[in-house]
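Input structure tokens:
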């Protein structure tokens, strides 16, 4: 008779522990290749720092006196990489005065009031092969510069792109991102995907291009023409889309507001949003427009190249000092490919005495299907 075969439970348990430890180590290892030397480098320059040839009032990146482990810049052969922290616990002011490649950057602390700022000279490049974290007390303020982040980016502080070219993989924003450009120096902001719960402000000659889905669950996306934003689609499940300019991609509103306004730049008026795509407003969405923007066109409104499916709330308010009159008419939605649905709720101001509001879902504006609202005599 053969002897029974017993399982060595102690050995199995040991293998499980070793496997678990290996898994944990793999998860927490920095994004570096085998054989690389990782240098953790902290900003020590504080709010003033050592100057570069006395040119600047704040500390320069290129001065080794401002760092705990020398000037952070990955070696050209990739054998040495830097993880950088700019947060001394007090006020920090660092200036990027050279082209730099690093593995990761953490800017600012998570609490307190002392701000850590990284600004730059003109036409400098910061390439981050791993992750970028701008904490609550962090501020990244670049002008006419290039920033590339290959890993994940988290913004809980402030990030400003003035006339620069920024490129991100995935971006999560819970604070403030400002993108602004001028006619001869446009700002370009490229990102794989965006999750916004803070404020993203795109103005002037600026372009925000999101290759994937632009998701917003609260907060504000503000657009001021001639600025434009694009995405594979916009999933706006909370907060507000406000302003004027061009939106490229299907826009889906659920539990959120769209507030088109009339703006003026470079001798051109931008009358609300131009949406290159379809628009869907569910019964929990709110399209908010203002009468009295400009005579005779009295509202700023969204115009879509695709379909408009309305099933939410239309809210009309009056601008200061403006009163309606019998015969006043204005489009509130224009959709070149047609309109389906009706607003479930109408929040309208009090009409003139002896008059009422009339809404026409089968109207035409500039030869396109439109929803038009009119003040008519009773």
């Amino acid at each position: 008779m053969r002897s029974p075969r017993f399982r060595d439970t102690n050995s199995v348990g040991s293998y499980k522990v070793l496997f678990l430890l290996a898994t944990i180590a793999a998860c927490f290892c920095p994004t570096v290749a085998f054989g690389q030397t990782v240098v953790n480098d902290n900003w020590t320059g504080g709010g003033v720092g050592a100057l570069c040839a006395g040119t600047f009032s704040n500390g320069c990146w290129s001065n080794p006196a401002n760092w705990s482990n020398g000037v952070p810049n990955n070696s050209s052969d990739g054998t040495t990489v830097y993880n950088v922290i700019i947060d001394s616990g007090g006020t920090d002011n660092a200036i990027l005065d050279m082209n730099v490649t690093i593995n990761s950057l953490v800017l600012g602390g998570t609490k307190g009031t002392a701000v850590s700022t990284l600004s730059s000279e003109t036409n400098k490049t910061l390439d981050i092969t791993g992750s970028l974290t701008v904490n609550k007390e962090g501020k990244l303020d670049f002008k006419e510069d290039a920033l590339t982040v290959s890993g994940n980016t988290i913004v809980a502080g402030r990030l400003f792109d003035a006339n620069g070219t920024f490129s991100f993989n995935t971006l999560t924003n819970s604070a403030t991102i400002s993108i602004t450009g001028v006619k001869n120096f446009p700002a370009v902001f490229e990102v794989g995907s965006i999750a916004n719960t803070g404020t993203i402000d795109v103005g002037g000659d600026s372009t925000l291009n999101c290759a994937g889905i632009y998701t917003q669950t609260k907060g504000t996306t503000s657009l001021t023409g001639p600025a434009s934003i694009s995405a594979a689609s916009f999933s706006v499940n909370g907060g507000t889309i406000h302003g004027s300019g061009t939106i490229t991609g299907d826009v889906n509103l659920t539990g959120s507001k769209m507030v088109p306004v009339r703006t003026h730049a470079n001798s051109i008026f931008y009358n609300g949003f131009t949406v290159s795509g379809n628009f869907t407003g569910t019964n929990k969405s709110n399209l908010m427009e203002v009468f009295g923007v400009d005579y005779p066109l009295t509202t700023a409104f969204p115009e879509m190249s695709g379909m408009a499916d309305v099933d939410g709330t239309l809210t009309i308010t009056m601008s200061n000092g403006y009163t309606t009159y019998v015969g006043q008419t204005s489009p509130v939605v224009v959709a070149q490919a047609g309109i389906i649905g009706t607003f479930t709720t109408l929040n309208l101001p009090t009409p003139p005495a002896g008059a009422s509001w009339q809404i026409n879902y089968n109207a035409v504006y500039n030869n396109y299907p439109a929803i038009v609202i009119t003040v008519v005599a009773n």
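Helices lie at 9-28. Residues 144 and 164 are 4 Å apart (CA to CA).
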